[in-house]
Design a protein that fits this description.
By secondary structure, the protein is an alpha/beta fold. It is built from nine helices and 14 strands. The strands form four sheets. The chain has a seven-stranded mixed sheet. It has a three-stranded antiparallel sheet with strand order 11-12-14. Bound molecules: pyridoxal-5'-phosphate. Pyridoxal-5'-phosphate (PLP) binds next to helix 3.
């Protein structure tokens, strides 16, 4: 049972498991028998070496990462990877072009950034709203693209892929920032996966990059050295000072995921939690409205409007005020879309979700 009264439904940085916070608090002044905090520890010390190696081996175990993949812990966030991906990979083939699927804010930003370094082909007709994933039969993939890029879960719009795109052998790259380790993934289908930690696997400051070895060493010559995957992989993410504390916290979260049944157990819980909210939306006769098509509704970020399809802002404000009184915070939708968004990452419990579900039922009864 959580000691905290507040339930954080934020989209990230997001809720962390309480046991992780307690352990970090316990170890804050002195890590093990070192007499110093991880915050004060040299990244070249043997103690930190153990922390980073343990974090990597937990990740390898939880995702079953094949041996021919490197794992890196980098700075610069998901946004840093919007640049690093093309800087490292767009030159894999002579044409310097890449295919992008644009299904929300984050993949749109990534595609825009990639345009600085080569030719970007959006493989499907432009979407007038980010509420669906265009049918793969409508995609025009370019066989001479260096890679195909997609965002597995669009955090702002609540659009999630429940399938892995088939690229006819072209290197597949995925931004999994907001659904990383929320379900099992077959890493061998990807050339590269990246994820900021601050949603499902830790706190802000570190971004995981998992990359197939044969893709290293082909960065454009203008690639900044800190973004060069080969340099970072060869130095075990220690080319420069890494985000030590964030890596340590990620290790604790991965340990927690392992102790709670791994990625398959996370998937079961995430299905259960998101269904609790979507079921209320579906049964509300339009009082609650989720604009996203059923097949690609996110299990991580559930966006919805209240009162009518396009949202009754006064009613939505009332909902948020009432939620706050009940200790439920950060339910406001992203400023670009409005409405409500409940983020149900791994650390958000079934009980937390039940509290929100109960409030939604009560609010419906009162205002329908
Ligand atoms: N990709 C996705 C799916 C995100 O949700 C976010 C941020 O929320 C980003 C990328 C950008 O991450 P950062 O703010 O760490 O650069």
């Amino acid at each position: 049972m959580d000691q905290k009264q507040t339930i954080n439904f934020g989209a990230g940085p997001a809720k962390l498991p309480q046991t992780v916070l307690i352990q970090a608090q316990k170890e804050l002044l002195s890590y093990g028998s070192t007499g110093i905090s991880v915050l004060e520890m040299s990244h070249r010390s043997s103690d930190f070496n153990k922390i980073i190696n343990r974090t990597e081996s937990l990740l390898r175990e939880l995702l079953n990462i094949p041996d021919n993949y490197k794992v890196m812990f980098l700075q610069g966030g998901g946004s840093g990877q919007f640049s690093a991906v093309p800087l490292n990979l767009i030159g894999l083939k002579g044409d310097r072009c890449a295919d992008y699927l644009v299904t929300g804010t984050w993949s749109a930003k990534a595609a825009k950034e990639a345009e600085k370094y080569g030719k970007v082909n959006i493989v499907h007709p432009k979407l007038d709203s980010y509420t669906r994933i265009p049918d793969p039969s409508s995609w025009t993939l370019n066989p001479s693209a260096s890679y195909v890029y997609y965002c597995c879960n669009e955090t702002v719009h609540g659009v999630e892929y429940n399938f892995t795109p088939d690229t006819n052998g072209v290197v597949l790259v995925s931004d999994m920032s907001s659904n990383f380790l929320s379900r099992p993934v077959d890493v061998s289908k990807f050339g590269l996966i990246f994820a900021g930690a601050q949603k499902n696997v830790g706190c802000a400051g570190v971004t995981v990059v998992i990359v197939r070895e044969d893709l290293l060493g082909q960065a454009l010559k203008e690639c900044p050295i800190v973004l060069d995957y080969k340099v970072q992989a060869d130095s075990n993410s220690l080319y420069n000072t890494p985000p030590c504390f964030s890596i340590y916290i990620m290790g604790l979260v991965l340990e927690w995921i392992k102790n709670n049944g791994g990625s398959a157990a996370m998937e079961r819980l995430n299905k259960q939690k998101s269904s609790m909210i979507y079921d209320i939306i579906s049964a509300s006769n339009g009082f609650y409205a989720c604009p996203v098509e059923d097949a690609c509704r996110s299990r991580m970020n559930v966006p919805f409007r209240i009162g009518k399809k396009e949202g009754d802002e006064a009613l939505e404000k009332l909902f948020l005020d009432g939620a706050l009184k009940r200790g439920m915070i950060s339910l406001k939708g992203h400023r670009s879309v409005g409405g409500i968004r409940a983020s149900l990452y791994n650390a958000v419990t079934v009980e937390d979700t039940e509290a929100l579900a109960a409030y939604m039922r009560e609010f419906l009864k009162e205002h329908q």
